Amino acid sequence: MRELLLSTEQLLISAAAQHPFFFSPRRSGSCAQVSLSVCSSLEMEEKGVDSDGNPFTTRSQLWAKEAGEDIATSTCFDPTKKQEWYSKGVSYWEGVEASVNGVLGGYGHVNDRDVAASDGFILEILPEATRLSKHLVALDCGAGVGRVTKNLLLRHFHEVDLVEPVSHFLEAAKDSLMTVSPSSSVFGRAINFYCKPLQEFIPKANRYDMIWVQWCIGHLTDRDLVEFFKRAKVGLRPYGFFVVKENTTKHGFLVDKDDNSITRSDAYYRDLFEQAGLFLLKTKMQKGFPKELFPVRMYALTTEPVKAGPIAHRTREFRSCGQGLLLCMSHTTNFEYEKETVCWWLFARVTLSDKGSFYLFTVGTSFAMVLLRRIYCYE
Fold first, then answer.
1. CA atoms of 241 and 223, how far apart (whole Å)
2. How many CB atoms lie within 10 A of CB 178?
3. Average pLDDT of the residues in 35-59
4. In sequence order, which residues have a C-beta less than 8 Å from that of residue 336 and are 6 or more positions away?
5. How much is the mean pLDDT over the chain?
6. What are the beta bridge partners of residue 141?
7. Does the keyword Cytoplasm apply (predicted)?
8. 99/14 same-domain check
9. Which has the closest alpha carbon to 308: 238, 370, 377?
10. 9 or 233: which carries more pLDDT confidence?
11. 45: domain range?
12. Are residues 259 and 323 in the same domain?
């Protein structure tokens, strides 16, 4: 594996974009890092290259050539070409061993660091008080052999459904998850196993508190990615959210011809999320991965924007409550602390005697010291 830092011109003639340098952790559409040097930020986000060194000047050119789609009209003018795009990806993974090391492209040793970072991210957006106060359900998209469900989601959610297009991966997930016994750290159960590609999957309405999407949407065309999130929004319960965890390029995109997947830039993803009507709640980078791999970014996305408005300089009273804080609020509100806006629904509602409603705040250790500090509330 080598880190690739090439200009657009170099990429057109460089053999360094060939297969041996690509890292594909579970349909990630990932390769060694590529920096596309172009004149403006807009141009940088539109340009890309494939693993054979072929350039694309725009996203539209990419999807017209590879999947027969017209971005401008959001239509498919060549269904055969689109089918070929998806079947090649599934065929690639059908030839991969159904194991953690297999789905991580030979990088099984990154599993623990990946899970640890994801666990911390969930705790920042899903407080313990919320987890303990209601029956939570999650959906694991591109679930593979059940790696994320087994090592992460079953520790935070009472029920987890899995959706995966590769049948022998899903069978391995069933075998693995059906033997998981409840413990002090694992209290959830895997319930439903759907053998379906995301571009065809329709989640059950109002079922999920969180939909986890990791290393899989690189196989979706732009059009199908946007449509997937639009459909999946219906599957979220009130105040539910998505977590997306994907490899990213610095600029533009890179197409892996081996498994027909695309690695997009952070700006590219944000544009697609906006098209799907999603709002960014929080984002964070994965740390501790080998340097030759693409940067991995986590996104927490909601279907409603974080409220904003005139800041009322008002001090709220906090009281110590274990590792959390009690905040006296009688209605939904957001507040800003150290320039970070926190959604009101990150609080789990509790009632104390007859004195009214309070909210238990347990998001992250950095907020444990806000006692007697001034909080800026959005009314």
1. 21
2. 11
3. 76
4. 311, 342, 375, 376, 377, 378
5. 77
6. 163, 213
7. no
8. yes
9. 377
10. 233
11. 1-305
12. no
CB 215 within 8 A of CB 26: yes
d(CA 51, CA 19): 7
Residue with tokens 């150290």: 338
Max intra-chain CA distance, the chain: 73
Domain count for the chain, please give it: 2
User: Do 295 and 316 have their domain in common?
Assistant: no
Distance CA 286, CA 15 (A): 29
Pairwise CA distance, residues 160 & 374, whole Å: 39
Residues 89 and 199 in one domain: yes
Comparison of pLDDT for 7 and 294, the residue scoring more: 294
pTM of the predicted structure, to 2 decimals:
0.74
More reliable by pLDDT, 326 or 242: 242
Q: Is residue 317 located within the same domain as residue 349?
A: yes
CA 115 to chain centre: 13
CB 323 within 8 A of CB 368: yes
Give the pLDDT of residue 253.
Answer: 97
Please check the confidence at residue 19 and state whether its pLDDT lies above 80.
no
CATH of residue 133: 3.40.50.150
Does 331 lie in the same domain as 276? no
Do 12 and 101 lie in one domain? The reply is yes
271 vs 280: CA distance, rounded Å: 11
Same structural domain for residues 226 and 248? yes
Boundary (domain end) residue, out of 280, 305, 330 = 305
Please say which residue of 242, 274, 305 terminates a domain.
305
